[in-house]
Amino acid sequence: MATITYVKSDFTQFNLNAYTTGIQQYPDILSLKGGGFVVAYNNGGDFLSLNFYDASGAIVGTTQVPASAATTAPLRQPSLTQLADGNVVVIWDDTQFGSGTPKGALYSPTGTLLQANMTLGSLSSPSLGLPTVSALANGNFAVAVEFSGEIYSAVFGPTGSTISSYSLANTTSTGIQNDAQIVGLNDGYVVIWADTNPADQQIRGRMFYSSGAPVSGSDFLIAATGDNTQPSIAKLQDGGFVVAYTDSGWAEAGGVLGNGITLQYVSATGVLGAQVHVNNISSGDESDPDVTVLPNGFVLVTWSYPYDPTDTDIRAALFDSSGTRIQVGGANQFTLVNTTQNEIHSTVAGLSNGSFVAGWENVSTTDIVGGLHQIVRVTTGDATDETLNGDELRDIINAGGGNDTINGGAGQDWIYGEAGDDTIILSKPQTSAGNVYDGGGGTDTLSLTGASFDYDFRDDTVTSIEKVNYGYPGAVVTAIAHFNADQFGTGISLTATITGQAFYYVFETFDVTMGISTSLDLSGLTFVNFSGGIDSVIIHGDNDAETVVGSKVRDTIYGGGGADYIDGKGGADMLYGGAGNDKFVVDNASDKVFETAGEGSDTVLASVSFILIAGSAVENIATTSTAGAGAINLTGNEFAQTITGNAGSNVLDGGGGSDTLVGGLGNDTYIITNAAEVVVELDSQGSDSLLAAVSYVLATGVSVENLATDSGGGTSAINLTGNEFSQSLTGNAGDNVLNGGGGVDTIAGGLGNDTYVVDNAADIVTELGGEGIDTVLTSVSYVLGAGMSVETLATDFAAGTANINLIGNEFSQSLTGNAGANILNGMGGADTMAGGLGNDTYVVDNAGDVIVEAQAQGSDTVLTSVSYTLTPGARVESLAASSSGSTAALKLTGNEFSQSVLGTKGNNTLSGLGGNDTLYGFAGKDMLNGGTGHDTLIGGANGDKLIGGTGSDTASYATALKGVVANLTSTVKNTGDAKGDTYSSIENLTGSSKADVLIGNLVANKILGGSGDDKISGGLGKDFLVGGAGKDTFVFDTKLGPGNVDVLNDFSVKSDTIFLDDDIFKTAGKVGQLQASAFHIGKTAEDADDRILYDKVTGKLWYDADGTGSDAAVQFATMGKGLALTAADFVIIS
């Protein structure tokens, strides 16, 4: 069976007065709800001083109440109380029994003045003094005061407003009434006082409601025998009260000599209970008692002993709530202070942590001295299984053997489980530090059973605890438990089991502060009933560089300052790095990492896919070194990060900011949201993709295989540019510019008006019908793939004068060249082709093709496989069938400018329209129409219809492989390529390179013989005849006259001959060689035989039918001047 004893534990005494000027006296001490206390005392005779302390005795505030400006009387006898709202009221006597009323002031619990110089009611007698105050349960406060030998009380609101005016308390007045005391009860208050009846001085009292109205019509007797003075009162926890007073009745009853101290217990209804004689010493007087109730309900009395002007000590005794004496240290009473100085006027207050503060007036030093004390309850168990309970005092519990259940109660506890599997129960947190929880041997449990409490073990000693339980069977607990990191290991086992409650409305937190430790690993703890979204483990770092490993459930870890390594382990963790270069290890996709900008260069290492939350200023995100080839996706936020994948197929998303994304091995995907993001991907590291929500240029050397717009890009105009490697580029529904860069790229624009930039002839453009108006810009010759619905195919502006060829497909396109010599081939569809500068070639396969070519943009050619009319305004120099060997019958038509128009071997219709055109029919029965202008028509073989149109037009056989007979007047005898030809509006003839017979017509012809031995006859008209190379013959066989004078442009004496028809040159001689006598050099005949005259000066040739006769000579030709002509150059033909 357990035994219980009590001992007293003292702390260092210290001065309670902050001011040292003058004499310090009349102390009053008030305990505060928060664990601290207040001391009020008279300072230097004129002031009241108040000092505010915390529970450890550290001062937190000090203030003075000066005397009123209207009086020079000192402020004496302060009385303190704490209201329901926590504020502190102090009242005093500032009249020293002069006229006036009680005064007071209102302070916060830390000493801030809230209201000064409150006037508490109105009393007008010249005899007023010793007011006392007590808080009421309803938030008001009551004042009792001695007034003209009577006792009065009144009730005031929290700021001093009058609730009830002063009313008389005493109804029995056989003497002067003094020493009024007051205390609030559960529903009202009680006033006690001393009645100075000369026979037996009594202690009397009267009870009041909270309104200030008396409960009964008269007062009641508390103490009667002997002379009873100096009463002190305190409220008991059962609603009653206890009175301590100085009692001379001891001597009168035959007791020891001198005055003693007596306790009288009174119920809440005023019924007298136990009466206890406190002191048991053998001689001397005891006086000045003060009484308080400790948190466990025990009654503590202090008093002065013996009365000696030079050496008085302060003693104390302890009783339970029913009046049973509690021995302390084995004695009935104990000494608080025993010096050779004079200590009087003790005052005592029990604090919420189980200790008490006592103070007194040291007459010798003129100070207010006091100290913190504890009554320690010592419980000693045995070897059996026991339930050992402490109380609100400080407990020392030695459980002994057995599986014990231990509850220290309130107050500071030192609990030693010793042997056995013990359970230490805390039903509510301790209010003082320095507790000891030592499980001892066995498997020991720390059980937190109080609801909605904050348990703080950080300033306690925790040893040998293997389990921590939140709650107790049948209890519902919402609690926080605080520990220091250095309490794990020898304190709380690193393999301990932490058990929560399995209720969704129960919240449990396991809170650890790093303190002096720099490392902590909670991964070995086992958590039971710790649900991920409700319960949590919290770890607080400080400014050290710490290594923190969390638990397997949800952790919240604060790194604090320093370069921390934070690993949340299992659970959805909340990780806060703080200042320093921190590293976070993430193993749950729901982990959250928090970093503020300017707090160092921080890194997240993830073994699972991870998204960095917005606002977290982390600089680096990477997979952990153990992540291997798992597919881990990493997402940053609006700050700039370096994000590094592993050997798996990662999705890396910068999230915003100028990020650097490093995929490494595996088929990685990069999500781009900022054009300044950098992607690092080496060759042979997988097939990688880049998805961009903004326009993006892939840097040189980055081996990414696929570039595409992000699916969230919608219709945004996003441009993508590849690099020297081969990529697949895919746009969105917006107007994209897709540039493969180098390499063999596959580019797909999708919806929108897209632009494809091509720099490799093997690039593949993919564009479906109905997906916008699209453009290909190429810096190399390029063939658009079949089925690709691209509307514009053009050279890149940067291509300059490079010779770039463009080939469209079956759809209609607009093709645009550069300044080089381009070949533009629209293929199918009605295409529009613009060559620009350079000698361009247009390949036409649709009659609806449009050619755009401006003046001075080079010598350009259209090659067509279909009948085609050249676009008006197109400055094209050549229009030709794309295959001259084809037998297709084409109809080719030029425009208003000069062109060469070339047909096929089929039956072509060639029209020059305007300009000086050259039309080539080749084989086939062609119709050539020169149109306006001076045209050249080359029909080729097989009988062509040559129509010159307006202008001076030429039928040319320059391309004939054999000599031809071409007669513009009568085509019946035409041979070779001229056979079957018909002429209309043809003024000129051009022969082949062989021996031709060329005959003009009635108009002025220009006939060119070519390089063969040609026979040329101009016919009528003023013809211009050119024999060309070879031995040419010029035939004059039409009627002579001024309108029929031909020009022999290149007559060669050496090789050429002039034939004169005897039907025309009748007198020139007989058929055969012209006789020498018939030829004369000169412009007039010299004799009658002269027939042919050559004027060497003018080059004119004349025919003079009768020489020097009367007939005038007729000019029939003009030839070169100064030629060495002879009769041998002329032949008479029939």
TrEMBL record:
Keywords: Membrane, Repeat, Secreted, Toxin, Virulence. One of its GO terms (cellular component) is extracellular region. It comes from the Bacteria. It holds the Pfam family HemolysinCabind. Gene3D superfamilies: Serralysin-like metalloprotease, C-terminal. It is found in: Membrane; Secreted. GO terms for molecular function: calcium ion binding; toxin activity. PANTHER family: S-LAYER PROTEIN. This is Ca2+-binding RTX toxin-like protein.
